[in-house]
Write a structure and sequence with these properties.
The protein has 217 residues and is an alpha/beta fold. The protein has 4 helices and 22 strands. The radius of gyration is 18 Å and the shape is globular.
């Protein structure tokens, strides 16, 4: 029998990080190199104790371009180019997620964003606004190879990086794929397993391969 329950994550209040945690992150930034801080993060990456979670949050604060309060980073989450990423208050990132940045790129994640387990984010030109949910196994892609010249393997040809934007309050279903250059409008829903190849208008439900508009919300 189905039942309706409160959305715990969406309604939770943000707790300010303790001053001691902020001081420790500042100390790490001042006294350790970036490589040393990444190594320290890796030391706690696989643990599932409260102390491991605390250390992941503190070390990430020392590495990120900007870091909000009360973020939750699960075990086995992988990042590259953390210095290009901004993560706002109350963000949750589930186990085995991967955020792949680029040295000259950007990734901006708004407040109270929920990123499920096994999500892959091509975070080289990515904006995720506040109150977005990204279901387990979803993938957000941000680049394609030109495939030119034809006499080269595709993987050796230049990359075209196309910004992706997931607007406020939208929801991305389990195992959905968002292709490069796409904008998901505010308050929209992408169905599970969909492949989104073009922009989705605000407050619209899409699904399918390729994703098509089903209805307005």
């Amino acid at each position: 029998m189905e039942r309706v329950v409160k959305a715990y994550f969406g309604l939770k209040r943000i707790k300010k990080d303790r001053p001691s945690d902020l001081d420790y992150a500042r100390c790490l930034r001042e006294h350790l190199t970036e490589r040393e801080r990444i190594t320290l993060y890796d030391r706690f990456k696989c643990g599932d104790t409260p102390f491991d979670a605390l250390m992941r949050r503190v070390v990430l604060r020392s590495l990120l371009k900007n870091c909000g309060h009360d973020i939750s980073i699960s075990s086995f989450v992988t990042f590259t180019h953390l210095d290009t990423m901004e993560i706002d208050d109350g963000v949750f990132i589930g186990p085995y997620a991967m955020l792949q940045g680029r040295h000259d790129g950007y990734c901006i994640i708004g407040s109270k964003v929920w990123i499920g387990p096994y999500v892959f984010l091509d975070a080289r030109a990515l904006t995720i606004e506040d109150h977005v949910g990204i279901g387990p196994g979803a993938k957000v892609l941000g680049s394609t190879h030109t495939g030119i010249p034809l006499n080269k393997p595709v993987i050796q040809t230049d990359l075209v990086i196309k910004p992706v934007k997931i607007c406020r309050g939208s929801d991305i279903g389990v195992n959905a794929v968002i292709l490069p250059g796409v904008t998901i409008g505010a308050g929209s829903v992408v169905g599970a397993g969909s492949v989104v190849t073009r922009d989705v208008p605000p407050k619209t439900v899409v699904a399918g391969v390729p994703a098509e508009i089903l209805k307005k919300r």
